[in-house]
Write a structure and sequence with these properties.
about 350 residues; alpha/beta; Rossmann fold; L-2-Hydroxyisocaproate Dehydrogenase, Chain A, domain 2; three-stranded antiparallel β-sheet; 10 helices; globular; Malate_DH_AS; Lactate_DH/Glyco_Ohase_4_C; EC 1.1.1.37; L-malate dehydrogenase (NAD+) activity
Length: about 350
């Protein structure tokens, strides 16, 4: 199954700050956006937030079940986007054809006791199917991957596009914005500062210890060694906190929907020509030995315009990065091999 996983204007972002907070500019464009997995716990609130974005002209919702109802519900909200629901495997091509941006929260959510490896066994095939359909009918779209485990699903998507001859590394993104908004929230709580003015750069991957918040670069912040260790761990494993609190009823759906919307809104701003749009994302780059690595990215009309350097890291952060790289490499390899070995 695919179901899984705001003033109205994005705040301006500093040089390489990764915080993204708002809904989109009111300047109208004609973007066509699809949400794949639109009936799920992430997909429904994400679709609602996208409906509120006046830069979207058409919003296509795809899932195995329930999407016509979700689309009918959202269509009553008085914003410009025309919402259409597509249901069932036979309609995925129609849902994706000609889209500018395809957002993918499809897959099963994490449950108590599940690891991201467990998720891989279920979600890998789903993501592969979506990538194949995208390559066929929307080869020039920007693809925003939310489906976990992102450290492997993004390489899966890339490998499928490569096989189809349509891969453009500037247009494939793993959405790691949830790590950023958690970091902003937790750091502001710890420091007693305004969360709306807190910008934490989070790099690496999107799973456990591969998530690396650069707390040494937070302007004006001061952390004790214990606070530094506790904050880093909480940012890395915030998802476990939500899974446990929901007591088997789901994972981080609402915060992920918000994060997914925020990144989509930033990308839409850049696609229509706005300058200096920066957000963290898991993209192909050469910053490290890992083929994909989350870093601050300047977005432009063609997707990735520039991947920014990580800047000065503390000794603790450098050690964490060194430890994370083997995992990032192994998880990317796992995704690539899944596609290569698929029948």
């Amino acid at each position: 199954m695919f179901a899984a996983r705001s003033s109205l204007r994005p705040a301006a972002m500093g040089a390489v700050a990764c915080a993204v907070r708002s809904i989109s500019s009111t300047k109208a464009t004609a973007a066509r956006v699809a949400v794949v997995g639109a009936s799920g716990g992430i997909g429904q609130p994400l679709s609602m937030l996208l409906k509120l974005d006046p830069s979207i002209k058409e919003l296509n919702l795809y899932d195995i079940v329930h999407t016509p109802g979700v689309a009918a519900d959202l269509s009553h909200i008085p914003f410009p986007a025309k919402v259409t629901g597509y249901k069932g495997a036979d309609s995925i091509h129609a849902a994706l054809e000609g889209c500018d941006v395809i957002v993918v929260p499809a897959g099963v959510p994490r449950k108590p006791g599940m690891t991201r490896d467990d998720l891989f066994n279920i979600n890998a095939g789903i993501v592969k199917t979506i990538a194949e359909a995208s390559a066929k009918v929307a080869p020039k779209a920007c693809y925003l991957i939310i489906s976990n485990p992102v450290n492997s699903t993004v390489p899966i998507f890339a490998e499928v596009l490569k096989k189809a001859g349509t891969y453009n590394p500037k247009k494939l993104f793993g959405v790691t914005t949830l790590d950023v908004i958690r970091a902003n929230t937790f750091v502001a709580e710890n420091q007693g500062t305004d969360v709306l003015k807190t910008n934490v750069t989070v790099v690496g991957g999107h799973a456990g210890t591969t998530i690396l918040p650069l707390l040494s670069q937070v302007k004006g912040a001061s952390f004790t060694p214990d606070a530094l260790a506790a904050l880093t761990h909480r940012i890395q494993f915030g998802g476990d906190e939500v899974v446990k609190a929901k007591d088997g009823a789901g994972s981080a759906t609402l915060s992920m929907a918000y994060a997914g919307y925020l990144f989509t809104a930033k990308l839409l701003q850049a696609l229509k020509g706005e300058k200096d749009v920066v957000a963290c994302a898991f993209v192909e780059n050469t910053l490290t030995a890992a083929p994909f690595f989350a870093a601050p990215v300047t977005l432009g009309k063609e997707g990735v315009e520039k991947v920014h350097a990580l800047g000065s890291l503390s000794a603790m952060e450098q050690e964490a990065l060194d430890k994370a790289l083997p995992d990032l490499l192994a998880q990317a390899k796992k995704g690539v091999e899944f596609v290569q070995n698929a029948k």
